[in-house]
Design a protein that fits this description.
With 309 residues, this protein is α/β, with parallel strands linked by helices. The protein contains nine helices and twelve strands. The chain has helices spanning 42-53, 88-93, 100-107, 115-123, 197-210, 225-247, 252-258, 273-285, 295-308, and strands spanning 2-7, 10-14, 25-28, 34-36, 62-64, 83-87, 139-141, 144-149, 152-158, 168-172, 177-185, 214-219.
Length: 309
């Protein structure tokens, strides 16, 4: 982990992007402290707290979850008595689609005879999901919530459904900082669980409109708006290629195998392309934005694509 001050009393804790679950967090060290996202397990979140303890005077009074995925909220329980804030749809979805117990059982299957299961288990080997009690938000909002942290203005802006149902941005207008959660993956192949491509485009456009000097992605290194524009270009490219192959009658896996990623091929987890193609196909079939996703089938398809490449 790397703790970095990106504006006065504004910090980011970066995890090197080694693949699944390596998310980022933020701290506004004013007004009792506000933490943007916790980590995927308790050991990593304890390390996060130790990093923040080098600059804060006490545990943060507020935690904001940018969305409901476990790698951004499963450490909530370690912020005892803190107000936990999220968009309403995030609060409703938290804990429904992911289970720490299931993830822990999966992480132990590195010797599985099923190569897709074994590969996913190896990706989870750095994480320990024991002891996690999914701790939901105590405060929710719909479109916008403004906070004043001893003179530091913080705007929480709903931009979902995009990556998930309840995405939000954390905007510090005077500091010129936006924490995006998983609206932005930087130099890391994105993956979206609920919403639409158009919804994700609009969320990325909103980040650009805010004009930040520093953008903190959910995964990957810091950037400016150039990183936001690059990820939007990736999504537009994948959607267009998916539509072309869908019209030709190819399956999502066949389409993913034929797509040349070009400048995006060096992004981490390139096999997530399959998930993104499948998402485009769901839209082309007219499926609703919140239709259930067979996660096991998605990860199996990604494994097959990675093996083929």
């Amino acid at each position: 982990m790397e703790l970095r001050e990106i504006a006065r009393d504004v910090y980011v804790c970066l995890q090197e992007d080694r693949g699944l679950g390596c998310s980022n967090s933020g701290l506004v060290n004013r007004g009792g402290g506000l933490v943007v996202d916790t980590f995927w397990d308790l050991p990593h979140t304890r390390d996060l707290i130790r990093e923040y303890a080098t600059v804060w005077s006490g545990p943060a009074r507020r935690v904001v979850n940018t969305h409901e995925n476990g790698d951004h909220c499963w450490g909530n329980q370690l912020f005892e008595s803190a107000e936990i804030i999220a968009q309403r749809r995030c609060a409703e979805a938290m804990g429904r689609s992911e289970s720490p117990a299931v993830m822990q059982a999966l992480a132990r299957q590195t010797d599985s005879e099923d190569p897709a299961v074994a590969a996913l288990a190896r990706k989870l080997s750095d994480w320990d999901f024991d002891g996690i009690e999914v701790t939901p938000p105590t405060t929710t909002f719909e479109e916008r919530l403004e906070l004043d942290l001893d003179g530091v203005a913080v705007e929480l802006l709903s931009v979902g459904p995009a990556h998930t149902a309840g995405d939000l941005l954390v905007h510090l207008p005077e500091a010129g900082v936006v924490y995006t959660g998983d609206i932005l993956f930087r130099l890391c192949t994105p993956i979206g669980w609920a919403g639409t491509y158009e919804g994700w485009y609009r969320a990325l456009d909103r980040v650009v409109e805010l004009g930040p000097e520093v953008v903190v992605p959910g995964h990957g290194p810091l950037c400016g708006v150039e990183g936001v524009l690059e990820m939007k270009a990736y999504l537009e490219f994948v959607r267009a290629e998916s539509a072309r192959h869908h019209a030709a009658g190819l399956s999502p896996l066949e389409a993913a195998r034929r797509i040349d990623l070009g400048p995006y091929a060096d992004w981490t987890e390139p096999e997530r392309l399959y998930f993104n193609v499948e998402r485009a196909y769901r839209e082309l079939r007219g499926d609703p934005w919140d239709a259930p996703i067979d996660a096991a089938a998605m990860f199996r398809g990604m494994h097959e694509l990675a093996s083929a490449r």
